[in-house]
Specification:
By secondary structure, this protein is of the alpha+beta class. It has a single domain, classed as Metallo-beta-lactamase, Chain A (4-Layer Sandwich). It has six helices and 19 strands. It has a seven-stranded mixed β-sheet with strand order 3-4-5-6-7-8-9. The protein has a six-stranded mixed β-sheet with strand order 10-11-12-13-18-19, with helices on one face. The chain has a two-stranded antiparallel ribbon with strand order 1-2. Strand 5 and strand 6 form a beta hairpin. The longest helix is centred in the last third of the chain and has 13 residues.
Length: 265
């Protein structure tokens, strides 16, 4: 008798793995020093179960920008963002839960033309997101290819410091949190995941190698962020956890970089 194959999702980090008859023994994302294995042990779920126990909120947070997040919170509890542009809509980062209501509402907003990921902690169910929205290409920097848990979707590994995926939409490999860590620049805004972490005061920014394990970034990594992001013009910055700098984000970045670099004086 052939068992049913399904994509198992890590309960702690939300990463979806390639369809299989049985759950993986380990989650490589959680076992990395930037994340953690739940002290209670590795556990798994699937998308059907998450759909049953959770729902998504789609909230307009700015002109042509929507936050998508799950309640009650699940795994890392990050937000995805849907950016509406004349060239097509971009999903920035993913969340694990993808249900019928979310699909319907996003389609009413024009669907998804492309998906771009900041780093491996937010890969989650990117395969299902891509397959659901007309096989939308998923852009991931090749420096993070080793962290992929599946490749059965329209994967676009990109290289170099920058990539314009659509007119005016530029991915920047800022590094830091992961070697392939990316941010997305569009007009006067920057979508940053937690490659750059907007602080609770909504005036400053933090940079970490690991947030849950409190491991700071090196001076070299901070200087790379400074080199690659300072040339860009932007006024707003949208992070992964509902903290946004609506005005003065470029000045906040300048100040925060200088503050961090003082550690090494």
């Amino acid at each position: 008798m052939i068992k049913n194959r399904q994509s198992f999702i890590c309960v702690t980090c939300g990463t979806g793995y390639a369809p299989a008859e049985t759950a993986p023994k380990r989650c490589k994302i959680c076992e990395d020093e930037r994340q953690y294995v739940n002290p209670g042990g590795q556990s798994w779920t699937n998308l059907k179960a998450v759909n049953h126990s959770h729902k998504n909120i789609i909230e307009k947070v700015a002109d042509n920008l929507y936050a998508i997040y799950t309640i009650p919170s699940f795994a890392i509890s990050q937000r995805a963002h849907l950016l509406i542009t004349p060239s097509g809509n971009i999903l920035w980062d993913c969340i694990a839960n993808l249900d019928i209501s979310t699909i319907d509402l996003i389609n009413k907003l024009g669907g998804i033309a492309a998906i771009a990921l900041s780093h491996p902690h937010y890969y989650t169910t990117m395969a299902e997101w891509s397959q659901t929205f007309l096989n939308a290409p998923v852009y991931i920097h090749k420096n993070d290819a080793a962290w992929l848990s599946r490749r059965d979707f329209n994967l676009k590994l990109w290289d170099g410091n920058e990539l314009e995926i659509m007119p005016g939409l530029t991915l920047i490999n800022a590094g830091g949190h992961f070697d392939g860590g990316a941010v997305l620049h569009y007009e006067k805004l920057m979508l940053v995941g937690d490659v750059l972490q907007v602080c609770p005061d909504l005036k400053t920014i933090s940079f970490m190698y690991s947030y849950p394990n409190y491991i700071p970034l090196s001076k070299k990594a901070i200087l790379r962020i400074e080199e690659l992001l300072i040339p860009y013009t932007f006024n707003a910055m949208y992070g992964a956890f509902g903290r946004y700098i609506i005005d003065g984000a470029k000045a906040a970045l300048n100040y925060s970089l200088k503050r961090y670099l003082k550690i090494f004086e």
